[in-house]
Amino acid sequence: MPSSVRTTTLPNGSKVPVLGQGTWKMGEDRRRRADEVAALRLGIDLGMTLIDTAEMYADGGAEEVVREAIEGRRDEVFLVSKVLPSNASRAGVVRACEQSLKRLGADRIELYLLHWRGSVPLAETIAAFETLKTQGKILGWGVSNFDMDDMVELASVPGGEFVQTNQVLYNLSSRGIDYDLLPQSERGGIPVMAYSPVGQGDLTRDRRPAAIGERHGATAAQIALAWTLRHPHVIAIPKASSLDHVHDNRSAADIVLSAADLAELDRLFPPPSRKRPLDMI
């Protein structure tokens, strides 16, 4: 049995595992439903109790997969879901959250994120998030795909200081946030949540991390995931639709990369030397 997953702490005091589970592309094919549910349930068994989803994923279908996976286990799980910017008005956020809760079969969402910036003023969206907090429908809120200037603006908006996380694309091939956003988030005590921490499967086939993996008895994907988890304030949310893949992800959390490993990865995947636009999928 693997050791427990290391945790990090959100600004509101919630302790969450640094390795969670993503659900992007789940719920798109009912023939895969049983495998997706089984994968999520195994992940919970292995300590990956943070599950990330969104109303956008399969038009709510991913949330329904999550509902089935957490049935009878709701209190073991830290749920994260996201509202589309087109629903980010004061009334729209409340309505979207209630619909997500219904699909999830839950009475609360631990962390509710704005999926990306749209045309609705941040102050209006934050006011809606705070209303949902008061109602107990969410326990905290955050943002996703916010670059440095977005986070600076957010901090100036009334209520912006209550942000709990920023979920962004972050992996060996997309590490622009290492230049400014990640250090600033760390200084502010706001953990970053990394989606696609092994890319779109690209890093699973990349020989560069594979060479390091041979030293650890690990795959390229596991080395890429371990690299993302090297940072104490990063939460990774890889998706896995098979039981073997879930086990592989969980094992990656126990890999300790040496200073030499990290230096080699910096040489193979150089850190940014200047500001880059935020990568998104």
UniProtKB/TrEMBL annotation:
InterPro entries given in the database record: AKR (IPR020471), NAD(P)_OxRdtase_dom_sf (IPR036812), NADP_OxRdtase_dom (IPR023210)
SUPFAM superfamilies referenced in this protein's UniProt entry, alphabetically: NAD(P)-linked oxidoreductase (SSF51430)
Protein origin, superkingdom: Bacteria
Domain annotation NADP-dependent oxidoreductase: ranges: 19-268
GO molecular function annotations of the record: oxidoreductase activity
Protein name: Aldo/keto reductase
Organism: Mesorhizobium alhagi CCNWXJ12-2
